Amino acid sequence: ASTVALIPAAGSGTRLGAGIPKAFVDLAGRTILQRCVDGVLAAGVGHVVVAVPADLIAATRADVPDAQVVVGGSVRSDSVRACLAATVGAGTSEPDVVLVHDAARALTPPAVFARVVDAVLSGHDAVIPAVPVTDTLKRVDVDGTVVATVDRSPLRAVQTPQGFRPEALARAHASGADATDDAGLAEALGMGVHVVDGDLMAFKITTEWDLRLARMLCEQGAA
Ligand code: CTP
Ligand code: MG
Fold first, then answer.
1. Which residues are tagged with the site Transition state stabilizer (predicted)?
2. Is residue 13 lining ligand 1, measured as CB closer than 6 Å?
3. Measured in angstroms, how far is the CA atom of residue 93 from the centroid of ligand 2?
4. Which of 56, 61, 113, 217 has CB atoms 3.0–4.6 Å from 43's, for a disulfide?
5. Which of 37, 48, 55, 76 to mutate to test the pocket of ligand 1 (most atoms within 8 A of CB)?
């Protein structure tokens, strides 16, 4: 089966606060984006499209020579649509599966990719990897007073890669809306979204703490 991965990597990394776009931050000798693309290719994905800020196009082509590189947008969904426009529906032969994968989930193990791809090939239009929530969750009002303790048992923390039949992803993005993940756009259209097991190693490098953890894992050879 043929698989394409779209990698939004055009964010500025405000919460990380590294002073450069997050995907270009060093992670034990390779950038976050390089490690992400390495992982995607190691998982057997045939074609990779990366969206980055306009001023980093040339640097990205040098950093990840095996990837197609496009200019991203001002919000994540725009960056995904820039990748989509350059591949699926751009006259190239349609892949069996399209994955959308955050550059910031650079240490995602190959088994997660395999579970997502297999679920799409078995007939699901949209597939997401997810893990149980471990903390106690409370709803808090603006004054800092607890309103309620939320039952966490049906809740899941959602990761990437998210997998789609090409037609389903194109339909999800047709509205031009923004969402924090692609499955959210599919849900808004009433499409069914199937959940498979994620992996704690697919955590998103968002804060300085996440970056410290990711660096330790790389230095220890655990990722
Ligand atoms: N992303 C993107 N284009 C945007 C915004 C985000 O391609 N306009 C990408 C990021 O590069 C990242 C993924 O979407 O790989 C997940 O976003 P997030 O973790 O929020 O990254 P940033 O938006 O860069 O971080 P922050 O929200 O802290 O600024
Ligand atoms: Mg963001």
1. 15, 22
2. yes
3. 31
4. 113
5. 76
**Nearest atom (ligand 1) to Cα of 12:** 24
Q: Total structural domains in the chain? A: 1
List average pLDDT for each run of 10 residues in the chain, which is 223 residues long: 96 98 97 98 97 98 98 98 88 88 98 98 98 97 98 97 97 96 97 98 98 97 85
**Can you spell out the DSSP letters for 12-24?**
--TTTT-SS-GGG
Residue range(s) defining the domain that contains residue 47 = 3-219
- Residues 6+ away with beta carbon under 8 Å from 119: 127, 163, 194, 196
Q: Which ligand is nearest to the CA of 76?
A: 1
CATH number at residue 203: 3.90.550.10
Ligand 1: nearest atom to the Cα of 73: 8
Residue 114 alpha carbon to ligand 1 centre in Å = 24
**What ipTM does the predicted assembly reach?**
0.99
CA separation (Å) from 107 to 33, 51, 143?
10, 19, 38
Which pTM was predicted? 0.97
